[in-house]
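# nightly structure sweep
# worker-07 picked up a monomer target from the shared queue
# config: single-sequence mode, recycle default, output format = structure tokens
# input follows
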Amino acid sequence: MLQGLGKKSTSAKRRPVDGSINEKVEEAKENKDGNPTSNAEPNAPKKGDTGKQSLICGHHETDVPHKESGTKKRTKSGQRINGEKSRDRKLKNKESESNRKVTDYFPVRRSCRKSKHELKCEKQKHLDDLIKNNVEEGLKVKSIDGKGRGVFADRAFQKDHFVVEYHGELLEIVDPTTGCYMYYFRYHDKTYCVDATKETDRLGRLINHSKNGNLRTKLHEINGTPHLIFLASRDIKVDEELLYDYGDRSKEAIAAHPWLKH
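# output follows
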């Protein structure tokens, strides 16, 4: 009996080498927990251990994380797309702000200044009205010793303003002749004459001559008909005599009218 016990103890000391004792100890622990040991797999996970099961069940392990990773990818990609869209919107907003005009913030203010053409048309129309209505305002007639009658300013006239028309009968002349109250001029390559010899109440015909006059003659057309008018060549004061240059320097005219020299 003693020898038999000794042999068992000897064999028991050699078992740890092949690991059989450890297996029995593990089996004994499992038996205490009430789990079967006969058909269990060596590396089978414990009941309720989901973490170990996910490591062993390759199918489930690859399936579930794939869905989660796919969801994350879609979320990230969605965020990236939304981020890109928001950046695009910001860039577009910045571009639209930079491309805005001053008129987007302030109402359009149109200039009241008129062009040269508009001013010229207004001046033309104003002269038309004055001539058609026979306007002769701010004038008076006085007698001058040695000269007869003369026309004086009854008010001040500014430079280039209308003063009066040299009114008379308009004639087309082939051979001009010298005469009083006759004003000759060229219009469209033809010679015309305003004959103001007939006595009327129009005052343009009474304006006297001077080489240094304060009036200048201007040819003004209305509907194809020429009119001779006088404009102020400089500012004219009240009670100043109105004068213009007759322009006749012929010997015959000067002999008949010596005052033409001055």
